[in-house]
Structure formats: structure tokens, C-alpha cells
Design a protein that fits this description.
Elements (H helix, E strand, L loop, with lengths): L2 E2 L5 H6 L4 E7 L4 H16 L4 E7 L4 H6 L7 E6 L2 E7 L4 H9 L3
Parallel strand pairs: 1-3, 2-3
Antiparallel strand pairs: 2-4, 4-5
């Protein structure tokens, strides 16, 4: 299951992680987000132990969303060693997101 990332735990779970981290910025009311959600959950299972896969609800966590300049959702950011290394805005197929993770493992 994808990790719930919040304003409170973003620093520890994402920026201080020793693994590659995929973060899905989403909202319950967002139709395209509901399309990406199951893909993110599949990736969380497949990359367990190899990468961290998490989700940020932008409505409940405005600080981190604002700090990272999230304007459109779904937006997926990939972090490595505390730095953003890749980005996907909008719906993308699973293989595209998997390729983005694999490129940084």
C-alpha cells in the first residue's frame, strides 16, 4: 500500500529517505487522479523494499504542495537523495512511471 505522505512527515519520508521516492499528488475530487491511484498502489507493492511509493492529498497538505509548486493534479514527482529528479504531470501508464523509478534505482 502506498505510504500516506503529509506536510508533517514529508521531510523524513521523502527528503531524508535513502531510497528513490515516487510521490503522487492527488485529491479525492480529481477524476484523472482516480485513474492513476490504482497504478500507484500497484507500484507500491512491486517496488516494496526497493523504492518508496507515497501519496500526498493536496487538499489536506497544502504546505508541501505549495512549496513544490504543484499546480495541476495528478502530478508525480520522483526524488532521490532529497532532490527532485523527475516529474510527470497528468495521467501516465504504469510502464512510464516504472521506467521513471527504474532510471534512478
Amino acid at each position: 500500500m502506498a505510504l500516506e505522505i503529509t506536510d508533517a512527515n514529508f521531510e523524513v519520508e521523502v527528503l531524508q529517505s535513502d531510497k528513490v521516492v515516487l510521490v503522487d499528488f492527488w485529491a479525492a475530487w480529481c477524476g484523472p487522479c482516480r485513474m492513476v491511484g490504482p497504478i500507484v498502489e500497484e507500484l507500491a507493492k512491486e517496488y516494496e523494499g526497493k523504492a518508496v511509493v507515497g501519496k500526498v492529498d493536496v487538499d489536506n497538505n497544502p504546505a508541501v504542495s505549495s512549496a513544490l509548486g504543484i499546480r495541476n493534479i495528478p502530478t508525480i514527482l520522483i526524488f532521490k537523495n532529497g532532490k527532485q529528479v523527475d516529474k510527470q504531470v497528468g495521467v501516465a501508464p504504469k510502464n512510464v512511471l516504472a521506467d521513471k523509478i527504474n532510471a534512478h534505482l
